[in-house]
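Suppose you are handed only two things: the residues of a chain and a line of SMILES describing NAP. What would the bound structure be? This form records exactly that question and the answer produced for it, so the two can be stored side by side and reused later without any lookup.

QUESTION INPUTS
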Amino acid sequence: MSEAEIGLIGLGTMGSNLALNIAEKGHRIAVWNRTGARTKAFVKQAGPLADNIVACDTLEELMGAIRPPRPVIMMVPAGDAVDEQIAVLRPMAAQGDILIDAGNANFHDTERRTKDFENSGIAFVGMGVSGGEEGARHGPSIMVGAEKEAWQRIEKIVTDIAAKYEDEACAAWLGTGGAGHFVKTIHNGIEYADMQMIAEIYGILRDGLGLGAADIGAIFARWNEGRLNSYLIEITATVLAASDPDSGMPVVDVILDKAGQKGTGRWSVIEAAMLGVPATGIEAAVAARGLSALKKEREGAAKLYAPTAQPSSAASQADIVAELESALLAGKIAAYAQGFAVMQAASAEHGWNLPMATVARIWRAGCIIRSQFLGEIAQAFEGRAKIANLMVAPAFVDIMSAVHPALRITVGRAALQGLPTPALSASLAYFDGYRQARGTANLIQAQRDFFGAHGFEKIGTKGEKHGPWAGSVSGKKK
Ligand SMILES: NC(=O)c1ccc[n+]([C@@H]2O[C@H](COP(=O)([O-])OP(=O)(O)OC[C@H]3O[C@@H](n4cnc5c(N)ncnc54)[C@H](OP(=O)(O)O)[C@@H]3O)[C@@H](O)[C@H]2O)c1
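ANSWER OUTPUT
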């Protein structure tokens, strides 16, 4: 039996599909799973692809089945499982081998693990894989962080299995260490904001306009033909059209309104906060999932307050629906601008030199936030060393100028109707804050100086100044 080109550990949802994808692209792969029964079931399910799969009963067997230098993908839960797996693998690894963590690792863990392998002759690769089960099987978007030499050795297999956008592989080397896992984290943060804003618009259509799920689904299906065209809008239309087989009701109407989360959205918010980069739309989306979990509390509070009196509106339903489409686009631009700003700041902080246009390009297919809109983002970054913010790229200034009034009307109307739009509102406030030449932080600086002698810059002068706060703590200090 000929030797495998690559190995894979962890035949769960993602690992089994990624292994089938690798085998299908003509790369012989050795696989091992902690629970042996799963390996057997996997081989059965592989059908003719089993010819390209070497099923191993032990890790030693796996390592022996791969042609050196051996790349080995770990597709196990992020965190302790990865460290445990590394601890067992490391003594079996030889010079030139490459250990690839393809799970949703926290990039700090990837940085730590990369350092642990420094000067060991064994390369450690942090590889973000997006697109869920379907992506893993037929082509995910792949974000790689590694030493360039390690990337070059796995590049052929990785680009072969990645999604293709007009023949271009949605996989790229983005920098060293945790670069790939960081970009994957921010991808998920943007995904949270995108999904939350879609849900808020759905809420306005359902509770503000009183439309049923099927009608709302038809609106999203129409929007998917226009500027909002994307995977998330497409699946929103699909799920809104689906019926529950037990009750015959729209399936969304029988689903409990409590959203789950696993961590990458929260990590995006933590990293943005640590970098001092505002990411209010993403923060609002993560907080909204937290609020959704408080179902019992929400039900209790709803009984304590009278329903909001509905303002009369002269706008027609068609006008409102058109405004909602523009509002969603405006909110989306602000949220994506935040995600890219966080990545730019992290790139500078960690010396990754993240290629922003490439990041946008490899998200055009395979991943959850895939859309044509990402092609426009790629163009905005293409050939430019650095854009301060997506919202100041000329093409986006034009789009945002046209659509932000609709976001303003939508958020205002929703507030008057008592309909929550946390991510849309936060995106609007971010846009308004970002384009306000004279803000209000002068007052904050005065307050900080008053109680803590923190000092401030005085317009048109150099050096730190203090205010004339007679009797204040800072006044006494001076
Ligand atoms: N599901 C998605 O849509 C998705 C998308 C992108 C990224 N990811 C990431 O991909 C990774 C895998 O996710 P998944 O959804 O495929 O998980 P999963 O279906 O739960 O499978 C987990 C796999 O890891 C193995 N495993 C668990 N703990 C282990 C340990 N301590 N040592 C060795 N093997 C261990 C399991 O083996 P046993 O059979 O023995 O339990 C199983 O094969 C995670 O980091 C996840 O966040 C998931």
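WHAT STANDS OUT: The chain has a mean pLDDT of 95. The pocket of NAP is lined by residues 10-15, 33-35, 38, 75-78, 81, 84-85, 103-104, 129-130, 132-133 (CB under 6 Å).
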